[in-house]
């Protein structure tokens, strides 16, 4: 049943791909005769479109059914098709030596979306029929963290059915018997010696193991395998970045921030006016943040809170139901418009387009008291977007934010920066990513 279900899943994914390709081909022939060639010429056009489609579906994870929610999959395909058709429009315009009419491409995009959305829903349904929820157990070291992650896992009921929650200090035989009943095992802060033993047992008996990462585990995640004579060794990537890569990163920052400032100047002007009209207080908010090497700088944002938001001089992050946020502020926070003035920070060199999110020094100090390695994030320049901003949320816990930022630093490349910038466009429309911290808190510490 599972094998036949996965075959059907593959067929429907292929159908999704060829439906998108077919609608484009028909639309091209109907609306843009000047770009229709004979035999090999048409194959080349289809090949170009296929390459564009594969590129954008990879960037936006269009085929990651089962890994992300259906709503996010559909949103991924919206951006995937916009990017693919935009690239193809430019390529066909170059071939035709003139700018083609836009309405034809809008019709093609509309038909593609009408067909893609129900196909995505069908594939999602087939995926979970072929891959029903795993029976899962949680083995934990700290009860509070177990409760927290149980709530998190239970949000994914289509993927996991929690059958046991077991403390790691239970008798070894009892823990192993629980593992035997499960298909997936979650290890949360389990004692290192016991973790190694239980992980080896899980691997041996084909259990899928999920481990809450430690600082060391994240460093080793990107390590290269090197050899000393015939002995294999792990070599973690150095956090010291290649000067040539840093040069090109800076060039990209200057060019793209300048282009964005010019292109979005109308939006920034409207936002500035809306804030000023709202309460007649300054529209630009200045705040001290930490960047590379612990250096302090002044970050610029559109003000989304009341002018007296911190008259008590207590540094705090925005909460879920924060009454300090103004009506205009709610809109610009959800859409990330409040962060547009940071483009000037990027242009000046205080920030980069991609990098760890800069923290306030007072809050960073609180985090470092509990997580001494938190300062590792300042090995590179702070950024407007990055792993933590895309895969985390505003209220992501500092230890998780640290792991995400280390992953970015260890895997740094220009191509990775480009992918993260493109993925940021989708995140802007995922309003849950701007969710505030718990009411009554001042930081993201749990």
Explained architecture:
The chain is an alpha/beta fold and 446 residues long. The chain folds into three domains: 2-130; 134-212, Response regulator (Rossmann fold), CATH 3.40.50; 243-434, no CATH class. The protein contains 16 helices and ten strands. The longest helix has 30 residues, at 2-31. The radius of gyration is 25 Å and the shape is globular. The two termini are 43 Å apart.
At a glance:
With 446 residues, the chain is an alpha/beta fold. α9 packs across α12 (342-348) and α10 runs antiparallel to α11. 54% of the residues lie in helices and 12% in strands.
* Share of residues in helices: 40-55%
The strand order across the widest sheet is: 2-1-3-4
Distance linking N and C termini: 43 Å
Global Rg: 25 Å
User: Whole-number average pLDDT?
Assistant: 87
Low-pLDDT segments, ≥5 res: 439-444
Residue fraction in strands: 5-15%
Count every helix, treating DSSP H or I runs of 4 or more residues as helices.
Answer: 16
Q: Would you list the SSEs in sequence order as H and E?
A: HHHHEHEHEHEHEEHHEEHHEHEHHH
Largest sheet: 4 strands, parallel
Q: Label the overall shape.
A: globular
Overall number of structural domains: 3
Structural class: alpha/beta
Oligomeric state of shown chains: single chain
Strand elements, count: 10
Topology of helices and strands:
Elements: H1 2-31, H2 40-59, H3 70-96, H4 103-130, E1 134-140, H5 143-154, E2 160-167, H6 172-181, E3 184-188, H7 192-204, E4 208-211, H8 215-221, E5 224-228, E6 231-235, H9 243-263, H10 265-279, E7 284-290, E8 296-302, H11 327-334, H12 342-348, E9 352-354, H13 361-370, E10 383-385, H14 387-391, H15 398-410, H16 414-428
Parallel strand pairs: 1-2, 1-3, 3-4, 9-10
Antiparallel strand pairs: 5-6, 7-8
Helix pairs in contact: 1-4, 2-3, 3-4, 8-15, 9-12, 10-11
């Amino acid at each position: 049943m599972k094998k036949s279900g996965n075959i059907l899943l593959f067929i429907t994914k292929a159908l999704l791909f060829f439906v998108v390709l077919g609608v484009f081909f028909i639309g091209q022939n109907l609306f843009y005769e000047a770009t229709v060639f004979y035999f090999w010429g048409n194959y080349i056009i289809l090949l170009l479109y296929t390459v564009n489609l594969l590129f954008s579906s990879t960037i936006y994870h269009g085929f990651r059914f089962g890994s992300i929610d259906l709503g996010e999959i559909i949103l991924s395909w919206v951006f995937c098709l916009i990017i693919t058709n935009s690239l193809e429009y430019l390529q066909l315009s170059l071939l035709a030596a003139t700018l083609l009419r836009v309405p034809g491409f809008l019709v093609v995009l509309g038909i593609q979306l009408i067909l893609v959305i129900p196909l995505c829903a069908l594939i999602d349904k087939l995926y979970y029929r072929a891959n029903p929820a795993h029976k899962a157990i949680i083995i934990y070291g700290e009860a509070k963290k177990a409760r927290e992650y149980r709530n998190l896992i239970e949000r994914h009921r289509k993927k996991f059915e929690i059958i046991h929650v077991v403390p790691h200090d239970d008798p070894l035989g009892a823990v192993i018997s629980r593992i035997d009943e499960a298909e997936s095992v979650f290890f949360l802060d389990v004692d290192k010696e016991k973790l190694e033993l239980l992980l080896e047992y899980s691997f041996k008996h084909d259990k899928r193991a999920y481990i809450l990462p430690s600082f060391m585990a994240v460093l080793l995640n990107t390590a290269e395998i090197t050899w000393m004579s015939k002995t294999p060794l792990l070599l973690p990537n150095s956090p010291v970045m290649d000067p040539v890569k840093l040069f090109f990163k800076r060039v990209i920052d200057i060019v793209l921030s300048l282009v964005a400032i010019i292109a979005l100047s109308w939006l920034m002007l409207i936002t500035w006016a809306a804030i000023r009209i709202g309460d007649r207080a300054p529209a630009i908010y200045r705040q001290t943040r930490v960047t590379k090497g612990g250096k302090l700088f002044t970050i610029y944002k559109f003000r989304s809170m009341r002018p007296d938001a911190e008259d008590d001089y207590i540094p705090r992050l925005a909460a879920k139901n924060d009454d300090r946020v103004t009506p205009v502020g709610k809109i610009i926070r959800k859409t990330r418009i409040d962060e547009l003035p940071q483009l000037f920070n990027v242009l000046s060199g205080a920030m980069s387009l991609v990098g760890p999110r800069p923290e306030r020094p007072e809050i960073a100090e609180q985090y470092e008291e509990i997580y001494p390695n938190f300062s590792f994030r300042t090995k590179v320049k702070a950024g407007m977007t990055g792993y933590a901003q895309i895969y985390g949320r505003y209220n992501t816990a500092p230890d998780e934010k640290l792991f995400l930022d280390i992953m970015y630093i260890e895997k740094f490349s220009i191509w990775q920066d480009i992918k993260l910038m493109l993925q940021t466009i989708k995140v802007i429309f995922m309003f849950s990513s701007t969710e505030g911290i718990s009411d009554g808190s001042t930081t993201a510490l749990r």
